[in-house]
Amino acid sequence: MADWSKAAEARGIELNETQKQRLEAMEKSITLLAAMIDWKEEPCQVFRVQEDPQ
Amino acid sequence: MTIAEAAAAIRAGQTSSVELTESCLAKIDQLNPSLNAFMTVTADIARRQAAQADDELRSGHDRGPLHGIPIAHKDLLCTMGVRTTSGSKIYSDYVPNFNATAVERLAEAGAVMLGKTGLHEHACGVTCDNPHFGPIRNPWDRSRIPGGSSGGSAVAVATGMALAATGSDTGGSIRIPAHYCGLAGFKPTYGLVSKYGALPLAFSLDHIGPITQTIRDSALMLDALAGHDPKDQSSVHRPAGSFVPGPADAADVLKPIRFLLPRNYYFENIDPDVRRVILLAAQTVESAGTTFVMGPVPDANQLNAVANVTFSVEAAAVHEPYLRKRRADYGADIAATLDVGRAIPATAYVQAQRLRTRLQQVWRMSLDKADCILTPVCPVAAPLIGQTTIDVAGQMEDVRVASTRLLRGINALGFPTAVIQAGYTANGLPVGIQLIGRPFGDAHLLAIAHAFESALGLERRQPPSAA
After folding, report:
1. Chain B contacts of A3, Cβ < 8 Å?
2. Which of A45, A49, A51 to mutate to test the interface with B (most CBs of B within 10 A)?
3. How much is the pTM?
4. I want to staple B403 with a disulfide (CB 3.0 to 4.6 A). Which of B18, B40, B126, B396 is the partner?
5. d(Cα B253, Cα B247) in Å, to the nearest integer?
């Protein structure tokens, strides 16, 4: 996964040291957790087509 | 006075809705200038609704235990014709033309609306030190925060300015103020209570629930609040049934119950005084014949990381249009939080949602071996207003992180959690206990929490500022 802070700064989002540390901690955790993902699974928030109310 | 006591007194002719409402309005006049719990007081509406409630009862129309009970609503629930600010400058003049479903359902159950309670700006924080409307103060010690974001609701209930209040909980916002103000609170299973008309913070983490003096009162509120709402896509269809604990003796309820006390994470880095209060409460209840099992729970740090990514991105998505045009109208802490969300890659958000599904399965397995998990709510008692870091068992921690780290992850799971009061620290500040239950096991969890509260038999003290 790319460095989130650098990517954000490239998009013009200014971050202080505390924000960078928070992002770094989240990035590390999500990267480590990737091993737990079942890649066949959809995220829990999925798109659903709504039926017209009759 | 609790809801249950007030409901009984009304029916026994010892008081009326009008008398209870006038008593609450007098307390608001007396206490609100110093505690700042209410954003808006709707005295005229309250008096009209109370008179109507009494008329209905006289004519034999009884809407149930909330009939004529004066309550307050967190000021992020839309109220028709009444300003709804979300504690923010952005919505400072917003007057909705509809009611949130929670407001509507409590009104249908006969509750009387006293007004709207203050909160941390946009419900996005734990201190309620609001840059636009001033700090809300803890009635146990006015120099301390009430917790948040539903701090105004908790202060109103703790002082008797209202008999109960609504709150919302995205990362602990019902449970933190319940703990810091010595109250009960309930975060229902996600989808059980409609979020329609609640100004959002993070779509998939926001929960609406009650803050009350006892957990039985929370169950009474939940009976009115719960139920499918077609206006809220996350609302679930569940069979109707009461959440109110039955009349069984506490010891009978507790005897077959197994509480899981986590061996890892939840009791690490806890203020020794808070730990003492919780373990003493557990020992007291254990003597009633229940079973406490020490055991591991899944990694809460992982869960918090997933919750943090979800929260940050969803909150940034909610606020992006306003943040772009009216950045100066946000408090510095909120703008900083939202910028973190803007910086997180979209792929990380999608992976976090996949991980939620997996973590739900893992955490659900922990609850195969126990009826509920017992944890502290926060590792400390109420911090001081203006305090940004706090000493937790010898280590300095950010107040926001410390207040939410035992709670935030559960919002990503959507499991129900109850907070009940456990006791007091050596310097007289309240301490709560969190009970985490199985998804959609809300009624079972409330029965356990009520039995725990009864077996503990804690003497209810009045906060010094409520006198």
Report:
1. none
2. A45
3. 0.96
4. B126
5. 10
